[in-house]
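DM from R.C. (forwarded with permission)

"hey, sorry to bug you on a friday — could you get me a structure for this? deadline for the figure draft is monday and I only need the backbone to look sensible"
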Amino acid sequence: MRRLVSLLLCVVSASACGSAPPPVAVPAPPVEPATALDALEQRLATAQSFRFHARLATSGRIESRFEGTVVAGADRRLRFALQGAFGGKDVDALFQCDGTHMRGGPRGHSFDMDAAPALREGIAVSFVRRGLTHDVARLASGETPDYLDGSARKHLEVVGPAHVAGEPVRGAATEQWTWLLYVDHKKAADETLWLDARSGLPLKRRVVVHFPEGDMDVGEEYDDFVVDGPVDENTFRIEP
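My reply, with the result:
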């Protein structure tokens, strides 16, 4: 609409004066995030760096537990290093990207390939909307994290987000967000995320994932979450 009005004004001016001055480019106003979830997603996707420690556990249809760290740097640099058990077997969920190359998966069933074009965006969007457990399970199975091609927002939909003042988490006041997660337009899970009321960063998550065979309960805890802090570049080095 704004562009149509600008063009109409140029036409009117040209009719009245015989010639139109060159149009002046007006920058579009920045798009404000609609919710705290959108703001977090945008923040993690564009930050120079972020890092956090995570503890993950699932029960019900699938039992697993993992603990470790996620570190992101500039230019698609990223590292997952979590250890635990999946389906009763000890397994690691490892991923390393130095900006141009990425490697990951458990020993004996790993992948080694060029860095994905939308690595940071895919990780940030998936983490905010769905949590960490899905990608950790993929890494433990020798697969790359999902949606590293820029399609995460198309596949993962936040439906009906709502928030209330949440219970304190480790002494911090929180804002509790709930929503339905749709994957490829089908309801997949009920999500609850507690954000630090001061920093807007995640503290914990509870999810009920729906499978035809039965539900799976997911718990995720996040500690030492830092955005735009110093990161050792050696963290992302891939050994020959």
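R.C.: lifesaver. The chain has one domain: 36-227.
me: no worries. Confidence is low (pLDDT under 50) at residues 1-31.
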